[in-house]
Design a protein that fits this description.
Beta-Lactamase; five-stranded mixed beta sheet; alpha+beta; rod-shaped; five-stranded antiparallel beta sheet; 12 strands; 9 helices; Helix Hairpins
């Protein structure tokens, strides 16, 4: 059976308060028992002193003293008592017990009492289980003789009082535990009430009201810290939701444009007779739009995998120089067709731990971005060097550059520095976003800056260590 949070908290409160109550009641019992013992001992001491003074005048005649003591205590059988008197030689001259069988007193105690010291001790009765608290002190008779006067009183009354106290506490324990349950239930309900209010507030938040926030009392307690944490999470969710909406709208727009062109091209071809050259031209145009659509879908799928952290294979040592060489033939062909010169300058043995396919895609995206915006007669420089435990890779071009106000936005999806071109350069608007995701995957950083002499410079810093498998989202 699963117990909810309210039940677990109630049980925890019951354990705490119940255990505390039991401990306090036990301490109260021992404290009261200690007080009763002390009061009983003081009572015994007072009684010993009082009876010793009463029978002091009769000590020179022990027989008369014994008769008087017997006569006095004969009618008090309900109050068991031991009364014995010893002479200076330690001999017992008076011995009265209305419940016989008290243990004999050691001679050492009698000698100690005859020196003038008070002696207190306990006697155990052998016949009926009675015990006595006794006092022994010196008494001087009218003739100057020294006697030891012993008197003991049964602890039966003390034990009865202790039993009543113990029974009273045991009878009160269920009531105390019931009170503990009520208090624990009230405390649990009061403690969880703010959480219930918070959950109800969260339950009312929908995608259309992500700007709603939990109230913060300002007391700085745990509830406030929880509310602040939840509000921060809601702010991140709202931001992510807005990005998803923006991304979805941009993706729909980007997909709609080539689809519209493709649809228009095909419709126009179906509405009229075409020559072979016209049909060829229409097919070429349609194929171009299909290629653009496929490229856009491929980029969207790659971004989705990077967002989800779905990367195949483990990081391996990758030589950036070899990757640049592998891409050199494609770059050179593309650059010559545009009238652009590409220069490479990489230090030897630039090795990073990463995913070769993704690093090749990073280099390709940065180079293609520079090729797209570098005019004829311009040049692109690809360089790399090792700095400490990192490799710094730079791709610089002699294009128009990026204004400082737009540099923080160039890595956003579907963002173009010149919106009026609307993809005329042939890109999907996702190349730099993919590049940033790849760099983040390898726990690196990427930034854009001005190139000396004009143009744009992309600088990626990749650590030589093993990258984290988690992809940084955003």
């Amino acid at each position: 059976m699963r117990i909810g949070l309210r039940g677990r908290l109630l049980l925890a409160n019951l354990k705490t308060t119940g255990l505390a109550s039991i401990v306090l009641m036990a301490l109260a019992y021992f404290a009261m028992a200690h007080i009763l013992h002390r009061e009983f001992l003081a009572f015994v001491d007072d009684e010993v002193g009082e009876y010793a003074r009463d029978y002091q005048p009769l000590l020179d005649n022990p027989g008369l003293a014994g008769k008087q003591i017997s006569h006095h205590f004969e009618g008090h059988r309900a109050f068991p008592v031991v009364c014995r008197i010893y002479d200076s030689d330690g001999r017992k001259v008076v011995d009265f017990q209305n419940v016989p069988g008290a243990s004999p007193l050691p001679a050492a105690m009698i000698e100690k009492a005859l020196t003038g010291k008070k002696v207190a001790y306990k006697l155990e009765h052998c016949e009926r289980g009675y015990s006595y608290r006794c006092g022994l002190r010196r008494v001087i008779s009218p003739s100057g003789k020294h006697f030891a006067f012993e008197m003991g009183m049964s602890t039966r009354r003390l034990e009865a009082n202790l039993a009543r106290l113990r029974n009273s506490i045991l009878l009160a324990l269920p009531l105390v535990l019931l009170i503990n349950f009520v208090v624990a239930w009230w405390a649990t309900r009061s403690t969880l009430a703010p959480f219930g209010t918070m959950l109800a507030h969260l339950g009312r938040i929908r995608s259309s009201s992500l700007d709603d926030r939990l109230p913060v009392s300002g007391q700085g307690d745990e509830l406030d810290r929880l509310a602040v944490a939840v509000n921060d999470m809601l702010a991140e969710v709202e931001k992510a939701f807005a990005m998803v909406k923006e991304f979805t709208g941009d993706a729909a727009h980007e997909l709609r444009t080539p689809l519209a062109k493709l649809n228009l091209t095909l419709e126009s071809s179906l509405s009229r007779e075409l020559s072979a050259d016209q049909a060829r031209e229409i097919l070429d145009d349609a194929y171009e739009q299909c290629v653009r659509l496929r490229s856009l879908v491929d980029d969207l799928m790659l971004l989705a995998r990077l967002d989800a952290g779905e990367v195949q294979g483990e990081p391996v040592p990758c030589d950036l120089g070899s990757l640049v060489t592998d891409l050199g033939e494609f770059w050179n062909d593309a650059a010559q067709s545009r009238g652009v010169r590409i220069e490479t300058n990489l230090d030897p043995s630039l090795v990073v731990a990463g995913h070769p396919v993704l690093l090749r895609r990073l280099l390709a995206n940065l180079a293609e971005n520079s090729l797209r915006y570098t005019p004829a007669g311009g040049n692109i420089q690809v360089s790399g060097a090792k700095h400490g435990n990192s490799v710094v890779l730079c791709v610089a071009d002699s294009g128009p550059g990026i204004p400082p106000t737009e540099r923080d936005r160039v890595f956003r999806r579907f963002y173009r520095s010149d919106q009026s071109r609307d993809g005329a350069t042939g890109g999907t608007g996702l190349g730099l976003s993919i590049a940033r995701k790849i760099v983040n995957l390898h726990r690196g950083t990427i930034e854009v800056a001005d190139k000396k002499g004009g143009g744009c410079l992309f600088r990626a810093v990749l650590p030589t260590g093993t990258p984290d498998q988690e992809v940084e989202h955003g």
